[in-house]
Specification:
heterodimer; A: 232 residues; mainly alpha; globular; B: 250 residues
Chain lengths: 232, 250
């Protein structure tokens, strides 16, 4: 995209402001709907939620997910921009779908982080992805009864159990090839950690933070070195 | 009528369907706004279409996996609630884990036979509350956070060459991928006893085949100029990786 002129810059600022207004509004409505639904269902079933048990459950698992949510907010929001972030946090499936999807689209058009182009492409990508998921699930739910034997057949089950490794294998090639030396150290560190403490496998999403910090630290050192070399 | 029958009733479909429809509407509105903004900013329509096509093709395969998650949870929670949770906000690994934790707090098993009306509404509430923080943080802090990170767009920014932000994002992905691949290596080496090499090697084999397939797609795209393949590269690589799991029997 050509450099944006003053008129386009003003338009983009207006677009961002209205995106935040709309994003906040629909996020609040979605929150009310999602938290209200269990109570509506409780009224229908004749048994309201047990708030004490829900609080205990939150202390058991909710805190972990809260930390994970904070990390996701801090890490993914800059990648996705305003529109993409509101939509991604509303529609979910971030790591397994929305983030790689937006990154693929971004790379395809060569958009840079923080640009207007990145904002537009991320939003288009995540909105498209969300609509496809909603459509596939709606059609799937409609066809669930006849589909169930096929999808749950013992033959196909191992394939769907391995969706995440398949995704990360594909992404590994895509990102590792950009800088193999950058990839080796976090991979070696994470492999050593999981070999010594295999029980951490259930907390892999939390360990993205230290692994990412190592990679970003190494990347920053390399970036500084390149800058210094360029000055000389 | 049993609890599971109630959970699959028309009323449940109506409650959940309204929310799914609302989120579909929101996605549609954001899509149209972004498209119009792209045109107003002088972006190439063909590139925007390519990005959307790639996103759509990329999303089909994982969506089928998510649909399987609906099926997996439908035995204990009925179909409409998992359909809602996995269409909106949720993720399969999270939903299953939280539903199980809530059931444990209630002294229940996550199964259709053991499910009670009060148990279900409590599980549903915990599933809703535990994962809403990203949305709340974005609503409260998103605008300020993004403004602080990026500032106002500078007309000459594109001429300065790539900054650290792009390198940092790539590094973050390298970190994320390393965490998962590391967990598969750790699972194989020590999953069934420290350094016994008796853990499951299926995730590693699947990841390796998917990576090889991605290398093939990249070669075809870059060296053979089959750019049209790019939109299918991740989904195709995943499919081939997943096929490996079928061939080696999980």
């Amino acid at each position: 995209m050509a450099n944006i002129n003053k008129k386009e810059s003003d338009f983009y600022q207006d677009y961002l402001r209205s995106t935040h207004r709309l994003g906040r509004l629909v996020s609040v409505i979605t929150l009310i709907l999602l938290v209200g639904a269990p109570f509506a269902i409780g009224a229908y079933l004749g048994a309201m939620p047990d708030l004490g048990a829900a609080a205990r459950g939150f202390l058991a698992v909710g805190l972990v997910w809260t930390v994970s949510s904070v990390a996701e907010f801090l890490i993914y929001t800059p990648m996705l921009g305003a529109g993409g972030s509101y939509l991604a946090f509303i529609t979910g499936n971030l790591i397994n779908m929305k983030i790689p999807c937006a990154m693929t689209a971004r790379e395809m058009v060569g958009a840079k982080t923080g640009t207007a182009e990145n904002e537009v492409i991320s939003t288009l990508s995540i909105a498209t992805s969300s609509l496809v998921t909603i459509l596939v699930l709606a059609v799937g739910v409609l066809l669930l009864t006849p589909l169930q034997p096929v999808l749950q057949s013992p033959v196909l089950r191992p394939a769907f159990d391995q969706v995440v490794p398949a995704l990360f294998g594909a992404l590994a090639y895509r990102y590792y090839r950009k800088d193999v030396t950058l990839a080796l150290i976090p991979l070696a560190a994470m492999s050593a950690l999981f070999i010594l403490l295999p029980s951490l496998a259930s907390s892999t999403s939390i360990l993205i933070i230290p692994s990412g910090a190592i990679a970003i630290g190494l990347s920053y050192l390399k970036f500084r070195k390149t800058q210094q070399e360029a000055r000389v | 009528m049993s609890v599971l029958q109630q959970l699959n009733s028309g009323t449940m479909y109506l409650i959940c369907g309204v929310i799914v429809a609302f989120v579909a509407l929101v996605s549609g509105v954001f899509l149209i706004r972004a498209w119009r903004a792209g045109i107003a900013l002088g972006m190439d329509k063909a590139r925007m279409k390519r990005a959307m096509t790639a996103s759509a093709t990329f999303s089909v395969l994982p969506s089928v996996g998510i649909l399987l998650g609906v099926i997996a949870l439908s035995g204990s929670l009925g179909i409409p609630w998992p359909w809602l949770r996995l269409s909106v906000i949720g993720a399969l690994h999270y939903e299953t884990q939280v539903a199980q934790a809530a059931a444990e707090q209630l002294g229940l098993q996550l199964s259709g036979e053991a499910m009670t009306a009060g148990g279900f509404s409590t599980i549903a509430l915990l599933m809703s509350v535990c994962i809403m923080w990203g949305m709340i943080l974005m609503t409260v802090f998103g605008k300020r956070y993004l403004a602080r990170l990026s500032g106002k767009p500078k007309p000459s920014a594109e001429k300065k060459g790539p900054g650290f932000a792009d390198a940092a994002m790539t590094a973050m992905f390298v970190g994320m991928v390393s965490a998962y691949i590391g967990s598969y290596i750790g699972g194989f080496v020590s999953g069934n006893g420290l350094f016994l090499f008796r853990g499951s090697w299926t995730p590693l084999a699947v990841a390796a085949v998917a990576a090889l397939a991605m290398a093939g797609f990249t070669w075809l795209t870059e060296k053979k100029h089959m750019e049209w393949l790019e939109g299918f590269s991740i989904a195709g690589s995943m499919l081939l990786g997943m096929l490996t799991a079928v061939l080696i029997g999980g």
